[in-house]
Amino acid sequence: MAVQAARAPENAKTALASAGATVSDVVQWTVLFVEGVDLGAAYGSIAPVLASDEPALVTGARVAGLGMPGALVEISAVAAVLPKAGVSVRLVEAHGVQLPAVILPAAHSGTADAALPAAVERQ
């Protein structure tokens, strides 16, 4: 459990970075824990990544299971990236679970392995 809880935010950071965003750009985090997980230990590993002077909205929930077999924790982030000259504002949605992290446009409802950044660690 501890390995997954530590790996999930790192995968989310990698996914955010591949879209030009950072943790400081995140406006919303969603953290899902599989029932029976030690919430204190799991959240203790994740909380330092989520903490900031201007914290984003954080929603946590216990769930019966996750889509990735063996996954005990999943983190999703929505980031607002400020525009550069001549570029419009865009939202980046990143998911971090123990294995893949996926970059999705805010309106996208599916996932695709082709969208996985090469730097995401798979254990």
Descriptive report:
With 123 residues, this protein is α+β, with helices and mostly antiparallel strands. The protein has a single domain (2-107), classed as RutC-like (60s Ribosomal Protein L30, Chain: A). 24% of the residues lie in helices and 31% in strands. The chain is built from two helices and five strands; from the N terminus they run αβαββββ. The chain has helices at 2-18, 39-50; strands spanning 26-34, 57-63, 73-81, 90-97, 101-105. It has a five-stranded mixed beta sheet with strand order 2-1-3-4-5. Strand 3 (73-81) and strand 4 (90-97) form a beta hairpin. The longest helix has 17 residues, at 2-18. The radius of gyration is 14 Å and the shape is elongated. Residues 97-123 have low confidence and may be disordered.
What keyword list fits this structure?
123 residues; alpha+beta; 60s Ribosomal Protein L30, Chain: A; five-stranded mixed beta sheet; 2 helices; 5 strands; 31% strand; disordered C terminus
Blueprint of the fold:
Layout (H helix, E strand, L loop, with lengths): L1 H17 L7 E9 L4 H12 L6 E7 L9 E9 L8 E8 L3 E5 L18
Parallel strand pairs: 1-2
Antiparallel strand pairs: 1-3, 3-4, 4-5
Quick rundown:
By secondary structure, the protein is α+β, with helices and mostly antiparallel strands. It has 2 helices and 5 strands.
